[in-house]
TrEMBL record:
NCBIfam families: hypA. GO terms for molecular function: metallochaperone activity; nickel cation binding; zinc ion binding. Ni(2+) binds at residue 2. It comes from the Bacteria. InterPro entries: Hydgase_Ni_incorp_HypA/HybF_CS, HypA/HybF. Involved in the maturation of [NiFe] hydrogenases. Required for nickel insertion into the metal center of the hydrogenase. The keyword Zinc applies. Keywords: Metal-binding, Nickel, Zinc. Pfam families: HypA. This is Hydrogenase maturation factor HypA. Belongs to the HypA/HybF family. One of its GO terms (biological process) is protein maturation. It comes from Candidatus Dechloromonas phosphorivorans.
Amino acid sequence: MHEMSLAEGVLQLVEETAMRENAQRVKLVVLEIGRLSSVEPEALRFCFEAVVDGSIAHGAVLEIVDVPGVGWCMPCGESVAMDEAFGACPRCGSYQLQPTGGTEMRVREIEIE
């Protein structure tokens, strides 16, 4: 389950930010997770709750923003929506798609006090 190591990485980033800003606690963490990122949001949520126990982020709310998948279809020559990494183009049915968006996972916001 790679979500556990991802949750640990997010916590490390959150703790470094909180320390740099002399925060007393972390109230909110907002993550953007792309549909094509191979990250299971609910598994990440579960792992995040486990790793923040006893940390400055204990009790912080984790908000996950879904980022849609986008890809470049070579035969169509256009950007199209992608729901899965190896799916077909919704316009022409080709499998020659290059993902251009929705593969990322990033911390968008950290609310501290």
